[in-house]
Amino acid sequence: MAHPTHERGITTLTLDSPHNRNALSAPLVHELADALKRCGKDDGVRAVVLTHTGNTFSAGADLRDPPQPKALAALLRQIVRLRKPVVARVTGHVRAGGLGLLGACDIAVAAGTATFAFTEVRVGVAPALISLPLLPRVDPRALARYYLTGETFGPAEAARIGLLTAAGDHADVDEVLAPVLDGLRRAAPHALAETKKLLTAKVLEAFDLDAGELARLSTRLFASADAREGMTAFLERRDPAWVL
C-alpha cells in the first residue's frame, strides 16, 4: 500500500501493488487491516477513502499468495464495523474479491471507465466470503445473474443494482466524490458513528451467522480439482477444460 494521506479529516488509503493489479494477497490484506485499525483509533480521522493506483482497483484474490479465508472475512468485517465511514473511490477495473471491498464500504463511487465482474465461477470457485457484505446490499436478481455467469458490466449497471452509490461520466469520479466528502466533513463524528451502526446492523448479522460456514466453503472450493484447473488455466491464459 502507498503511504496514507490526510486532508481536512479525510484519510486516503491507496492500494498500490501494480505487479498483481492490487490483488488481495496475504500481505496486502494485513497492511490494509493495520491501516484501518490506525484510522479507527485516530480522532482526527472523520472518514476513510479507499482508492488505488493503476487501472485496477483490485483483481480479486491473489492466486499465488492468497489470504487465509478468515483473514479476508475479518478485513471485510473490519470495514463494516469501523466507526468511521469508508468510501471507495474507483477509477479502474474491479474483479471477484475486490467487489467484496466495495460491498463492505459505506459509500462507493466509480468513474465511467470502471468495469466489474464476479469471475469466481470461471476459475472454479464461488463468491463465498464476499457475499457477507454484498447479499444484504445488492439487488438479488442482479447478483444471481452476475454471480452465475461471470459477465462484465459497467458502472451505470453497478449503481442500478446497488453495488455502487454513484457513477461519474468518463473519468470524473472526483466530481461525484466532492459533495460526499463535504457532507462527511460537516457531520458530527459521534452522529456519524451511530448512524453507520444503524446502517450496518443487518450486514454484521450476516457475518455473525455465516462467516464461519462461508470460510469453510471457500477453503474447500479453493482446494478442489476445478479450482486447480481454473487457476492454472487463468495463469496460462487459456480456457479451462470445462468450457464448451
Strand content: 15-25%
Helicity, in percent? 40-55%
Main beta-sheet annotation: 6 strands, mixed
CATH architecture: Alpha-Beta Complex
Structural class: alpha/beta
Count of separate DSSP helical elements? 9
Q: Distance N terminus to C terminus? A: 40 Å
| Count of the domains | 1
* CATH class label: Alpha Beta
Side-by-side strand order of the widest sheet:
1-2-3-5-7-10
CATH topology: 2-enoyl-CoA Hydratase, Chain A, domain 1
Q: By CATH's scheme, which homologous superfamily applies? A: 2-enoyl-CoA Hydratase, Chain A, domain 1
- Cα-atom radius of gyration: 17 Å
Protein name: Enoyl-CoA hydratase
GO molecular function: catalytic activity
Family: Belongs to the enoyl-CoA hydratase/isomerase family.
InterPro entries: ClpP/crotonase-like_dom_sf, Enoyl-CoA_hydra/iso, Enoyl-CoA_hydra_C, Enoyl-CoA_Hydratase/Isomerase
What's the short version?
With 244 residues, the chain is an alpha/beta fold.
Describe the structure.
The protein has nine helices and ten strands. 48% of the residues lie in helices and 15% in strands. The strands form two sheets. The chain has a six-stranded mixed sheet with strand order 1-2-3-5-7-10, sandwiched between helices. It has a four-stranded mixed sheet with strand order 4-6-8-9. It has a single domain, classed as 2-enoyl-CoA Hydratase, Chain A, domain 1 (Alpha-Beta Complex). With 244 residues, it is an alpha/beta fold.
List its traits.
244 residues, alpha/beta, 2-enoyl-CoA Hydratase, Chain A, domain 1, four-stranded mixed beta sheet, 48% helix
